Amino acid sequence: MSDFRVSRFELQLLEKLWVLGPSSVREIQESLPEKDRPAYTTVQTMVYRLEEKGAVRRVKKVGNAHIFEAAVTRRSVH
């Protein structure tokens, strides 16, 4: 798999996915530090951008929520 370039915030979201495993945007957003926590829509936009880059993928849908998982390893991200 090729190396991925990600922003600091994208890396923070990937770190959460690596720890949490498959998660919804809401679960990712709520796992971020409460102080200075970004809005749900901000996290959603960044997760969708990571999906476009191929760094995350949708694994299923529960109700209206898509469940995402990391599609890359820590070693392939910089």
Account of the 3D structure:
The protein is an alpha+beta fold. It has helices at residues 8-20, 25-31, 40-53; strands at 23-24, 56-62, 65-70. A hairpin with a 2-residue loop joins β2 and β3 (65-70). The longest helix has 14 residues, at 40-53. It is globular. The model has no long low-confidence stretch (mean pLDDT 92).
Which helices and strands occur, and which strands form pairs?
Blueprint: H1 8-20, E1 23-24, H2 25-31, H3 40-53, E2 56-62, E3 65-70
Antiparallel strand pairs: 1-3, 2-3
Helix pairs in contact: 2-3
Give the strand tally: 3
Q: Biggest β-sheet, characterized?
A: 3 strands, antiparallel
Shape from CA axes?
globular
The helix/strand series, from N terminus to C terminus, equals HEHHEE
| Parts with pLDDT < 50 across at least 5 consecutive residues | none
Cα gyration radius (Å): 12 Å
Range of strand content: 15-25%
SS summary, helix count: 3
Helix content: 40-55%
Give the CA-CA distance, first to last residue. 13 Å
- Output the structural class: alpha+beta
Strand numbers in spatial order across the main sheet: 1-3-2
Nearest-integer average pLDDT? 92
What is shown here, in short?
The chain is an alpha+beta fold and 78 residues long. The chain has helices spanning 8-20, 25-31, 40-53; strands at residues 23-24, 56-62, 65-70.
Features:
about 80 residues; alpha+beta; 3-stranded antiparallel sheet; 3 helices; 3 strands
